[in-house]
Amino acid sequence: MSGNRTRGATPDAATGGADLPFTLGYGTNGLADHRLPEALDVVAALGYGGVGLTLDHHHLDPFGDDLTRRTLAVRRALEVRGLRAVVETGGRYVLDPFRKHEPTLVGADGRSRRIELLRRAVRVAAGLGAPVVSFWSGVRPVGTTADVATDRLLRSLETLLPEAAAAGVVLSLEPEPGHHVATIGDALAVVDALGRPSALGLTVDVGHAVCNEPQDPAETLRLAGDLLANVQLDDMRPGVHEHLPFGEGDVDLADVLRTLVALGYTGMAAVELPRHSHAGPETARRSRAALDRALTDPAAGSRSVVDVRSGTGRLSEALR
């Protein structure tokens, strides 16, 4: 990748905190009990700069009628609140009412349905002015070899990547515990097999690094390097794939934020708590407070996270 260190980034967008090169956001899958405009109100009121927008029946249904018109309405809603977005495609039952997260890009049946979802997600992202569509491989079916699953994934991406490139959107592959692409090493192998196309990047969920990676979250981010296109923030414990609020697991949030600054990352870093919608506003508020504390982590020797980049430590009013 040339030039910009982060694929699909728009550095001049709102960040949710001056002096940070990246945008602090909140995932709408953690506000699933809210109407989308009201979810955006919560996110903006708490000082976040963007959202990870999960396409689902309740928030911009990708298979509903009049998708273009509804996408433009969401774009206006984002703009009036000063928010940017990335598009997430992990809706649980958006494709099959009986099977969570099915079909997938590595399954024997139904791949065309998942491809169509991602195709629509790319169109939505382009319509929103969102630079990234995040996705994952899916779970390898019982009896399917790793080689067969990889071939299915590569062929699916060969179909989708030209369309993403034409739309100016980056498809960002997320390693997911239990999936065929489970680790950052797995994801890098896929990107390399396709020749590192400019329209393909990587999503890193920092909790997954604690749960499922041999190295810590900061090193996982460094391994993604210039391919890093999207970041999800949460806490997690080793070996347990459960998204937790900050402080309930083993993620060193201040270290993660310092690493993102040091990498020159300019994309979205959105809180990902998909099982906390029942207490969405309070969880979002506590998450924001935890981010603020991490940004001025006293363990850094009275230096803020932004000192790594600017040497000033100046924070926006929203962070004070």
Automatic annotation (TrEMBL):
Xylose isomerase-like TIM barrel domain segment(s): 40-292
Annotated protein name in UniProt: Sugar phosphate isomerase/epimerase family protein
Gene3D superfamilies documented for this protein: Divalent-metal-dependent TIM barrel enzymes
The UniProt record lists the keyword Isomerase: yes
UniProt keyword annotation of NAD present: no
Molecular-function annotations in GO: isomerase activity
Keywords: Carbohydrate metabolism, Isomerase
UniProt source species: Aquipuribacter nitratireducens
InterPro entries: IolE/XylAMocC-like, Xyl_isomerase-like_sf, Xyl_isomerase-like_TIM-brl
SUPFAM superfamilies assigned to the protein according to its UniProt record, in alphabetical order: Xylose isomerase-like (SSF51658)
Disordered: region residues: 301-320
